[in-house]
Design brief:
The strands form 2 sheets. Strands 2-3-4-5-1-8 form a 6-stranded antiparallel β-sheet. Strand 3 and strand 4 form a beta hairpin. It is 31% helix and 22% strand. It is an alpha+beta fold.
Length: 193
């Protein structure tokens, strides 16, 4: 699957769908950040170190368990032009940081674009799952399942006191940002006399 498949359409499937409570919540998103033991954070890594991280993380794509979730495509950012990168940013599939500042950055995308796994962003690995409407539990379960698959094949950075090590301290100790994008709707009630 080529990168053009992901940049040709303006909207991802999760943006088009209607989910539970979609009149109030547009989408649900979970992000999990992980870093590999014995490698500096991406902003401090050398080209060789960031390439080794990319090689290790992209190797997980060969896992049979991952294939049961979706068909995935690995897209090195070096294969994309500036416009293609910006399309992926606008679709919330990659961050501006990954698009503009990453060394040996890549993204692994699911076929329907509801799963985006960024490599060498602020952290070595950033798993992001998106669903339409209010589906926090569903996106959490999906992100957790993907994290478990990566964890069986990688050695995550861990500290007994701080927990899993991430670039942003507030994301340590098993904390995971979760978001529900809400829609501001106008009043629809009939006026009373």
């Amino acid at each position: 699957m080529t990168s053009q498949r992901f940049t040709a359409d303006a909207l991802s499937e999760w943006m088009k769908g209607e989910g539970p409570e979609s009149d109030i919540v547009i989408s649900s998103r979970i992000r999990i950040a992980r870093n590999l033991r014995d490698y500096p954070y991406p902003m401090l890594a050398t080209n060789q170190q960031s390439q080794e991280v990319l090689d290790q993380l992209s190797g997980v794509l060969e896992n049979d368990e991952l294939e049961t979730i979706s068909n995935f495509s690995l897209i090195p950012l070096s294969d994309l032009n500036e416009l293609e990168r910006m399309v992926l940013v606008e679709k919330h599939l990659i961050s501006p940081n990954l698009a503009n500042e990453s060394r040996n950055g890549a993204v692994i995308l699911s076929e329907n674009e509801s799963i985006s796994i960024m490599i060498n962003e602020e952290d070595h690995l950033r798993i992001q799952c998106l669903c339409p409407g209010f589906q926090i539990k569903e996106v959490w379960d999906l992100a957790n399942q993907i994290d478990d698959i990566f964890e069986t094949q990688l050695d995550y950075g861990y500290d007994e006191k701080e927990g899993l090590l991430n670039k942003l301290p507030y994301e340590c100790r098993y904390r995971h940002p979760c978001f529900g994008d809400d829609a501001f709707t106008g009043a629809s009630a009939k006026p009373t006399n």
